Structures are given as structure tokens and as C-alpha cells.
Structure prediction request, 319 residues.
Amino acid sequence: MLRAACACPAPFRSTVGDEELSTVTSLTPQQWQQAHDSTGRVQKFRQTCKLIRKRGLAKELRSQAWPLLLSCYAPDETIAGRQAVSDAAQQELNSLLQQAAAPDAHNNFELSSGGETWEQNVRRIATDVNRTDCGSGNITAEERSAIDARLTHILTAYAYCDPVVGYCQGMADILSPFLLVFPQDDALAFMCFAAFMGQIRQNFLEGQPGVHSSIQHIGSLLQHADPKLWRQIEKLDMSTGVFAFRMLVCQFRRELTFDDVFGFWERLWAAEQMAHCQLKDHCVAALLRLNRKQILRLRSPEDFIQVLFYASTQILIAI
Prediction:
């Protein structure tokens, strides 16, 4: 479920600069272990989130920390409790895939989908899986086939469990980082992907109301914090927010490398745990303010799009 709307009055912004950010040491396994008691419960959860928000996570910690940051289980959950949650996710994934493969799958899906057929969703998944970047580099055809199978299984399960949304373009991009964080565990990848989709589900409903609401919110933030910058954006005919559309739909996956999107997402999730609200809109507003001087000098919408294209990696310091 979507969290409550954020009441922060101005764009959320880090005091860490570009040069400082590159030298910040990630939270280490030892520090992560020290944050837990003997049963596996997280102690001082807010303090731990504060450290993650500032420093990010060591690579080997992501598979442990991401389910926590996405509220797949509570901070006071024990090791045994987390295993039970994981087992339940595996059972749900298996059940959904069995239902999606049943002869009457299309009937069950179409009763809730508003008229779209299950076959249309299956075709869209197949098309997008074939062109999804999974950061795999030089791999064999067999390895790529295994990645495609994982993408297909999880996207099929998600589409079947939420027929009102089904499968929409961009979901494969959002799923791909989870496959890398959970290379051997489709249940955890599915669980975390579904939890993240729960936060941004309105971006994929008909008419994409979540995206349009975010664009309006970004405009309101800038009008409050930097009226001059907002007037310039209006002058450039960019107040419709077209520049932010892909950023918001794909959660910056296409703008950032995998290493950068890992760091951005986990630091953003940690910040949202502390603020008890979503801060993505604030990050986009902060990104614009970080490039304020350059934007104020622009003369065309095309120049604005180009500036944002090259500046998008600065989102890492907008948290």
C-alpha cells in the first residue's frame, strides 16, 4: 500500500557533495551485525536507517537489508520469523505461477482486469524481457536464457496477482536490479519487487495518476522553494513535467548504472523509513535545484532535456 503523502515543505536534500559522496564508506558487514541482537532483531532501527541513508550498503548486505528497508518484515522480526516470511513468499510465487499456467488462467484474469486479456500481458512480458538490460555484460546464451526465465516468472506472477495493473512497460527495468541483488532467490526478489511496486503502483494504473500527481508535487515544491527556477521551467514549456516522466516511471533505473541505482534506491528507502513518507518527488526537485544556474541560462526545451539527461546521476546527492 502507498504510504501517506509527505508533508515536508521543501525538497529533501543532502549536505554531502559530489566529491565527498565518492569517498563515503558503505555500511560494513560488521556494523550491520552490531545492529542486531542475538535473535536477529534490529536494534535502533532509525539509527541504522540514518547510516544507510548517508553511506549506502556494502554489496554483500543488500540481500539482507533490502527486505527490511522495503518493510517486507519488521525490524523486530527474528531470524526464524524472517525465514517464515521468505518461505511464505516462495509458496505465493509457486501458487501464482501454477494459476497463471492453468487452462482457465485467462478467464480468472479477465474477470478482474477491466477487459484486457491475459494473452496481451504475456506477449508484453515476452517482448520486454528480450530487451531488458540486466547488467550482465559478456555472458553466454545459456546464462542470458536463465536471466530471461527469471524475469518472465516473476513478472508473470506479479501481473497475475494484480490484474487491474497487469504487466506494463517499465516493470522489467524495475525488476532487473532485484535479480542481481538476489541472484539465487526468486522468492525474495519477487517479495521485494512486489513491495516496491506497492509503493509506486499508481504510476501504472490507467492514466498513470501517480506520475501526474508526482509532477504536480514537484512543481509545488519548486514554486515554494525556488519561484525563479520554476518560472524559468514554465518559460521553457517544461512545467508539464515531461522531463521527469521516465525517471518517475522507472525509478531512475534507465538514467543510472546498476551500481548507482542500488545506492540510490537503498539510501532513498532508508530516508523514507525515517521520514515515514515518500521522498522521490523531493529528490527530483532537488536535482533541478542542483542544476539551477545552468537551467536559468537555457533558451530552449531541447537544451533543458539535454541538461537533465547528463545531470541525472546527481540524484545520488539529492537524498
Notes: DSSP finds 17 helices and no strands in the chain.
